[in-house]
């Protein structure tokens, strides 16, 4: 029975890693689509969403079956619970990638505009966060997860700076308001991807150490998700 249980845990891990690969790929494609104004990559992001959604359903079903039938204890229980939470965040990462792709599709229809923010740099940093969060899960290393938590503060500052600069641009340049607004929404969605990467890192720490660090990262109440306290990001 123990061997069968371990095989189930291994299968759950592999399923989540495959989904993580899909979510990371979606973010990378959306980021590159923004840089290159590439409609083909946008379409790839939209088409990939169904694969991510299907993976989420299958992982939840497998995890709930293990909880119901095996009644795991201690670290195994924490692992399965972490998988269900990470699973939800990865699905939301896919949603944010779709949002970015949709903004890029709108931008492509408009003349290029020179905007005073480096959204591409922010996208690269966010992609690195997602990758490192997944690495922390693969390796079960708390130090990698902690590095993700620290990176989130950098992304927040980049988001705040983008907001200030783009609002100023919209006030000064009415002719490029739509371009600036699209860029602002892309920055907002990238920041939400970073929040989900942070959530994943927190769940890795919970799994490995049994420590709940959620309330020690972002104390701002308006950033909290009602269904998941502290830094839990919504799919909006």
Description:
With 236 residues, the protein is mostly helical. The chain has one domain: Phosphate transport system protein phou homolog 2, domain 2 (Methane Monooxygenase Hydroxylase, Chain G, domain 1). About 6% of the residues have low confidence. Helices cover 79% and strands 0% of the residues.
Return the domain count.
Answer: 1
- The whole-angstrom Rg is 19 Å
Largest sheet: none
- H/E element order: HHHHHH
In the CATH hierarchy, the third-tier topology is known as Methane Monooxygenase Hydroxylase, Chain G, domain 1
CATH architecture: Up-down Bundle
Bin the helical content. over 70%
**Assigned CATH superfamily:** Phosphate transport system protein phou homolog 2, domain 2
Q: Rough shape?
A: elongated
Mean pLDDT across all amino acids = 90
Amount of beta strand: under 5%
In short:
The protein is mainly alpha-helical and 236 residues long. The chain contains 6 helices and no strands.
Write the layout of secondary structure elements.
Elements: H1 2-36, H2 39-70, H3 74-108, H4 119-139, H5 142-172, H6 177-209
Helix pairs in contact: 1-2, 1-3, 1-4, 2-3, 3-6, 4-5, 4-6, 5-6
């Amino acid at each position: 029975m123990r061997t069968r249980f371990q095989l189930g845990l291994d299968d759950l891990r592999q399923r989540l890693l495959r989904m993580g690969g899909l979510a990371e790929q979606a973010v990378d494609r959306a980021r590159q689509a923004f840089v290159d104004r590439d409609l083909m990559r946008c379409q790839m992001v939209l088409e990939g969403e169904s694969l991510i959604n299907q993976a989420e359903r299958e992982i939840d079903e497998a995890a709930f079956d293990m909880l119901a039938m095996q009644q795991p204890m201690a670290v195994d229980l924490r692992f399965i619970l972490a998988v269900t939470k990470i699973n939800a965040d990865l699905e939301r990462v896919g949603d944010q990638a779709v949002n970015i792709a949709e903004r890029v599709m709108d931008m492509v229809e408009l003349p290029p505009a020179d905007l005073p923010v480096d959204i591409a740099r922010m996208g690269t940093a966010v992609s690195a966060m997602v990758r490192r969060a997944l690495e922390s899960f693969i390796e079960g290393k708390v130090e990698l997860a902690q590095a993700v938590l620290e990176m989130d503060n950098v992304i927040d500052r980049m988001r705040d700076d983008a907001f200030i600069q783009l609002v100023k641009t919209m006030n000064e340049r009415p002719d490029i308001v739509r371009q600036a607004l699209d860029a602002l929404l892309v920055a907002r969605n990238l920041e939400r991807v970073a929040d989900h990467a942070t959530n994943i890192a927190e769940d890795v720490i919970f799994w490995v150490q049994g420590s709940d660090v959620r309330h020690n990262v972002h104390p701002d109440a308006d950033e909290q998700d009602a269904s998941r306290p502290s830094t839990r990001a919504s799919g909006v």
